[in-house]
Write a structure and sequence with these properties.
By secondary structure, this protein is of the alpha+beta class. It contains 25 helices and 13 strands.
């Protein structure tokens, strides 16, 4: 991971951020370094771009709701960009005035179109009414009304209660029609009442007297039908708003294109996740980039230089001591099927740039420990097959991660199942009880010795990694202490002393054993490490002696606890093997097959889960606790954020 610094003229800052946000190859950070204060003294430029963006968007959104913004973004000319850099508030005010001018033009067009639309509706109604109303029917009918066709059937039922009333309906649209009522004059009051109930509009509410007279006069009727048809066509042509909007687009095309560009530019500049150092003469952008992505960043700046004719400064640095929380990208595991298993490491913490990433080691150690507890060929094969199926079926989520972990867990369960000579809790099928690993039930002490040796090797390996991390982080004297050589000597001496005691059963003799002196030497070295570091750094004080005593006690207690904690492997291996004995005892009244099925189900559920949890405990605390801090930060690439209202 490299730290990069880009220096550019202020007017091109948004273009750089836009390209960085599109390619997503960098993580931005607050600008830091020895020259930052000197740059600020030249005149730091503090602009409330967020406030300007919100002010501009209030007017700009109104334009977005119209049909005049389907133009391409037109970039501001260089001189305008420089004016914006010098006086962003003034440029925004000028554009807001222009946007308001466009809005006024649109309102004028909309008002004219609304007026024409109302006239078009009225004229079309008159036209359709004249076509629907035949002169001879109007002369003979009692009354005529405009009715909603959805209620016409019920209307007829009420009107036909009098035998001397008849009706005729003439539809002039899919929803409306004229109902003609024929009958004597004395029924008029009844008909008007029914019209009122069913909200039928009397013809005089729809048409004026002139239109009704035209409908009665057959000669003039045809003449005015033709006239109204021409008026409708003319009004339809005038109510097409596209032409008026196109005229506005043509007149204000540059302003509208610049406004669209300005909106995009303000959105980029107002992004608070891009902490740019702005001065009166330059803008400084700083962040982190993966070594493999450096060519992409260089291409971005080269293309901008060619397009703008300006020069941009780009510098790379290695992270320094003042750079905290240097981000690290998620590692790419090979083969790719192992990628979901990265979660096993990241759950313990994200690796920092200065420490070893144990992604493969965690999978190996976790699965190895699990296999020691859960050694069974048949059950391991089931989990191996289940892992392969799950990893193929699920590409995301927790199921994909579990499926990936089941594969190495199943493999190690099979390998140690061969060592224990156990297939579905049936022992002795392969080697006839002459297996090369000790039986957990019958050779428990021997298995404890195996596990004790494995524990010592595993812890010492973790401490070696811890010493390497201490050196990489610049704590050179830390290599000697409780996270390095001191604890290594203590664990090695402790394990040797335990084996000597088991061999001789002589406690006092063990105290004179050379391994015991190795143990004491490790504790003493752990105590000396903070004192040596303080003397070398020139900040020795009485408190340092207290730190040394604390380190000695921590080495004694932690090393002892860690080493003996591995004996839980023996306990769970014994529990797993004991299920075979339980199956044998149950066979007397359940039968061999049912008892084996029951015990295998218990092993593949409760015992499988408990072995997995204990393996995690040994991995995270006893092993990874010796070298892995996990205080790093994941690499989060800068991307353009779109504000949503």
């Amino acid at each position: 991971m490299k730290k990069f610094t880009i220096i550019s003229p202020p007017e091109y800052e948004h273009q750089i951020l836009r390209e960085l946000g599109t390619t997503r190859v960098v993580q931005l950070k607050a600008v830091s370094g020895v020259d930052v204060e000197r740059l600020r003294k030249t005149g730091e430029r503090i602009v409330d771009f967020k406030g300007l963006y919100e002010k501009f968007q209030d007017e700009y959104k109104a334009l977005e709701e119209t049909n005049v913004l389907d133009l391409e973004s037109i970039e501001l000319e260089v001189n305008k960009l420089r004016e914006f850099t010098e006086d962003p508030d003034g440029i925004i005010k000028d554009f807001l005035v222009k946007i308001q001018d466009v809005q006024e033009k649109i309102k004028e067009v909309d008002a004219r179109q609304e007026e024409r639309h109302v006239k078009l509706v009225e004229t079309r109604l008159r036209l359709e009414s004249l076509k629907a109303l035949k002169p001879e029917e109007l002369k003979k009918c009692l009354t005529v009304g405009l009715v909603d066709l959805s209620v016409i059937q019920r209307l007829k039922e009420y009107l036909h209660r009098f035998e001397d009333l008849s009706t005729k309906v003439v539809e002039f649209s899919s929803e409306k029609g004229y109902v003609f009522v024929f009958g004597p004059e004395e029924r008029r009051e009844w008909v008007e009442t029914i019209f009122l109930i069913f909200e039928v509009k009397d013809i005089f509410e729809v048409l004026n007297t002139h239109d009704i007279l035209l409908a009665i006069d057959a000669g003039k009727r045809e003449e005015f039908i033709k006239k109204y048809e021409e008026e409708v066509q003319e009004l339809q042509a005038l109510t097409q708003t596209e032409a008026q909007y196109e005229q506005i687009k043509t007149e204000y095309s540059l302003t509208l294109g610049n406004a669209k560009f300005l909106s995009q530019m303000l959105r980029i500049l107002s992004d608070e996740s891009a902490p740019v150092l702005r001065t009166n003469v330059i803008s400084v952008i700083q962040g982190w980039i993966d070594n493999d992505k450096m060519q992409t960043l260089e291409k971005i700046l080269n293309d901008l230089q060619k397009g703008t004719g300006e020069l941009f400064y780009l510098e790379y640095e290695d992270p320094g001591h003042d750079d905290h929380a240097v981000p690290t990208p998620e590692p790419v595991m090979k083969p790719s099927i192992l990628q979901p298993a990265w979660k096993l490491t990241s759950l313990r913490g994200w690796p920092s740039a200065q420490e070893i990433n144990p992604m493969y080691i965690t999978i190996l150690v976790f699965s190895f420990q699990f296999g020691l507890m859960y050694g069974d060929i048949g059950q391991g094969a089931i989990f191996l097959i289940a892992g392969i199926i799950m990893s193929r079926k699920f590409k995301r989520g927790m199921m994909s991660k579990l499926g990936t972990l089941f594969i190495p867990m199943g493999i190690f369960a099979i390998l140690f199942g061969i060592g224990y000579d156990s297939i579905f809790l049936i022992e002795g099928l392969l080697f006839h009880h002459h297996q090369f690993m000790p039986n957990p039930v019958h050779e428990t002490t021997t298995l404890m010795k195996w596990v004790f040796k494995i524990a010592a090797v595993e812890i010492i390996f973790g401490l070696v990694l811890g010493a390497i991390n201490q050196w990489k982080e610049g704590h050179k004297w830390g290599v000697l202490g409780e996270h390095g050589l001191g604890m290594i000597l203590y664990v090695a001496g402790l394990s040797l002393s335990v084996f000597e005691f088991i061999r001789t059963a002589d406690f006092m003799g063990t105290l004179n054993y050379w391994g015991f002196y190795l143990l004491l030497g490790g504790m003493f070295l752990s105590m000396l490490e903070p004192i040596i570091a303080a003397l070398a750094g020139g900040h020795f004080s009485i408190e340092v002696i207290g730190e040394g005593v604390g380190a000695l006690l921590m080495t004694f207690v932690e090393g002892l606890a860690n080493l003996f904690s591995f004996l839980r492997i023996v306990a769970f291996a014994l529990a797993h093997a004991s299920l075979a004995g339980a199956a044998h005892q149950l066979a007397g009244f359940m039968g061999n097959v049912p008892s084996l099925i029951l015990m295998n189900l218990i092993a593949m559920s409760f015992e499988f889960m408990s072995s997995g949890v204990q393996s995690l405990r040994l991995l995270y605390y006893e092993f990874m606790g010796k070298f892995y801090q996990g205080n790093g930060a994941p690499f989060r690439p800068y991307r353009l954020r779109i504000r949503r209202s």
